[in-house]
Amino acid sequence: MLKSFDIYNQNNVLKIIVAVNLLLVGTGSLLFTNRIINKLEAREEQYMQLYASALKYVFQTADNEENINLIVDGILQANQNNAIPAIYVDEHNEPVQSKNIDLPTGLSAKETRLYLLEQKEKMRRNHYPIRVDLKDGNFGLIYYDNSLLLKQLNYFPFALIATLTALGVLAYLSFSSSRRAEQNRVWVGLAKETAHQLGTPLSSLMAWVDYMRTDPDHYEAEVTDEIEKDVNRLETITARFSSIGSVPTLKDENIDEVVTHFTDYLARRISTKVKMTVESNLPASLMVRINRLLFEWVIENICKNAVDAMAGVGELRIRLLPLPHDEVAIDITDTGKGMSKASMTKVFAPGYSTKKRGWGLGLTLAKRIVEDYHNGRLFVKSSEIGKGTTFRIVLHREPGPLPEIDEPRRKRPSLLKLRGPKVK
């Protein structure tokens, strides 16, 4: 049997179609561009070979050096229209002619020579020079580089890949955002409909509690009180569901008192084989801005998951401590089966669950309540297989120095845990 499931497992055909289309467009464009670049390189090399052949012919047939220089200048000038940078050097490696090279202004003859020699070395790294055989065993060399158009085309594949990657990321973010928005609408609608459906039976249960109080001889007061507590608890849950999707009202609450009060209530409604302890290192008067109903829901979800992880037997420790930067931490540690690193990354995902029952939404809702409504953080602080897990809640408190601790408060068992057995 699968240990996890995803109730929001949607059809990913559209995402696959978009990804495949982007891949096909990118691959086709890159292949086509590469083909054009290769053809242009071959054509520019043919131009330079023609220049070399023309130079060879001119040097071997011209009558004097003046005519040679004039014709060489004319041949290289013809290259101006193709914008192929070229440098012609003699057999002594001295630059004779250069075309389509932007020389810095204000250079002396010596500086110009050095600059051309430097450019020649750069050209040599890109293309082999073309030899020009002259009269009497002399020779020259033509060095050349790619034209500006060809250089721009060489950068085009990188620009194309970056553009397609950006489009893919935007498409993925759009799909993910749309999916999250749909999930949020489903959750909000489900929560409000649940709150609405609970309204009628709650009214009926309250009426039955009032009826039981009218006949104390037949119905024990302690039983009636416990039933009323559970009815009040259902009203609290209804209020929580009603709050989903709305902006919650945050109030300054004594976080120590909130956690202690709720864990005292919770202790009598979980397994009697679970030892729950609370340790607070916070000043008794420390206030944190929270929505009490929703925050108690967070504590409840984490604690119930911890009890399930321990299979109803073990120790559940809750520790409150101050942090730097005006923050407060609440660590909830169990002695359960622990989690692998893979599970730690998925534990807050909607629908993830290792239990046969449940929808896998408890920790997801808890994380959203802490982070979206309280601007805090909820994460798995640590976990070890076979030893247990620690969840940490981080909240912001009012800035300023911490008040002094009135009295040391060490580990103590939850109060209601000592008062009697679990009420079934």
Automatic annotation (TrEMBL):
Q: Does the keyword Ligase apply?
A: no
Q: Which UniProt keywords apply?
A: ATP-binding, Kinase, Membrane, Nucleotide-binding, Phosphoprotein, Transferase, Transmembrane, Transmembrane helix, Two-component regulatory system
Enzyme nomenclature, EC number:
2.7.13.3
Name the Gene Ontology molecular function terms of this record. Answer: ATP binding; phosphorelay sensor kinase activity
Matches recorded under PROSITE patterns: HIS_KIN
Per the database record, which ranges form the Histidine kinase domain? 193-399
Task: Extract the SUPFAM superfamilies matched here.
Answer: ATPase domain of HSP90 chaperone/DNA topoisomerase II/histidine kinase
**What Pfam families does this protein map onto?**
HATPase_c (PF02518)
Gene3D superfamilies per record: Histidine kinase-like ATPase, C-terminal domain (3.30.565.10)
**CDD domains linked to this entry:** HisKA
Q: Does the keyword Lyase apply?
A: no
Top EC class, one word: transferase
In this chain, the stretch annotated as Disordered covers 402-424
Bilayer-spanning residue ranges:
12-32, 155-175
The protein's name is: histidine kinase
User: Catalytic activity, per the record?
Assistant: ATP + protein L-histidine = ADP + protein N-phospho-L-histidine
Q: Which residues form a coiled coil?
A: none
Q: Where is the composition biased (Basic residues)?
A: 410-424
